[in-house]
Amino acid sequence: MNEELLPETVEAAPARPVQGVHDGVLPHLQALLEILVLAIFFATFIAQPDRVPSGSMEPTLRVGDFYLVNKQACAPRGVFDRILPAATVHRGELVVFHYPPEPGKDLIKRVVGLPGDHLRLRDGHVLLDGASLAEPYAVYNQAQPDGFRDDFPSMRSADPNVDPRWWAELRRIVANGEIVVPPGRYFVMGDNRNDSEDSRYWGFVPRDALVGRPLVVYFSLAAPPNADSSVRRSFWEGLRDRWQGIRVLR
């Protein structure tokens, strides 16, 4: 008698969980959120990018330069002042700060006067405590003579670009043809001396308005200093210009 062959029992494979659409998206969203948090932390406490809007700092910085600001270099430490001493600000170094007349706007200039300094300008050149200050970074392009700009603090006439509050303060603090930088304040100027609205026009920069020190130009849309604007440059020449524009700031 032939035995009836029974089919072998096949064990069912374990059911695979159904992966929802959101299961694949959530890890990516989490990664993006982590990157965003790190970027915000970096820009808030460590460094921030910025762009040069005018030619007041030429030739050190040109219009179209993008630079990175070290916010830990000279920015006030707030609640940590009692634990960590505030970083020292040196004469001749570049600083980024909140523009006193418009605190929501950041500017970059060079520190010329420190607290306690006696300052005045003669023919556009800075005199510090009566002696000429060596400024290899300063340039003096041809411009019409301007008594207020070149012989600051000249009280004979006001410039239309002078902040009225600063003009009123100047009338109180100028003595013997010079000003004395108050405690906790800095006198800043642009390297392009004849084309810079700086402390001459709106006053001192408070210590707590300092944002940080510029570190490096990481990208530049500016043409090379001696480039002929009438000559169309090739793609590769433009790329080379961008690369050569990367530089450390001093």
Describe the structure.
The chain is 22% helix and 23% strand. The protein has helices at residues 21-46, 147-150, 164-173, 199-202, 235-244, and strands at residues 47-51, 65-70, 94-98, 106-113, 118-122, 125-128, 131-132, 179-180, 185-189, 205-206, 210-220, 247-248. Strand 6 (125-128) and strand 7 form a beta hairpin. The protein is globular, with a radius of gyration of 29 Å.
How many strand segments?
A: 12
> What is the SS-derived class?
alpha+beta
Give the full name of the CATH homologous superfamily.
Umud Fragment, subunit A
Written as H for each helix and E for each strand, in order along the chain, the element string is HEEEEEEEHHEEHEEHE
Main location: membrane
Enzyme class: hydrolase
Membrane topology: Single-pass type II membrane protein
Catalytic activity: Cleavage of hydrophobic, N-terminal signal or leader sequences from secreted and periplasmic proteins
Summarize the structure.
The chain is of the alpha+beta class. It has helices at residues 21-46, 147-150, 164-173, 199-202, 235-244, and strands at 47-51, 65-70, 94-98, 106-113, 118-122, 125-128, 131-132, 179-180, 185-189, 205-206, 210-220, 247-248. The chain has one domain (49-248): Umud Fragment, subunit A (Ribbon), CATH 2.10.109.
List keywords for this structure.
250 residues, alpha+beta, Umud Fragment, subunit A, 8-stranded antiparallel sheet, 4-stranded antiparallel sheet, 5 helices, 22% helix, globular
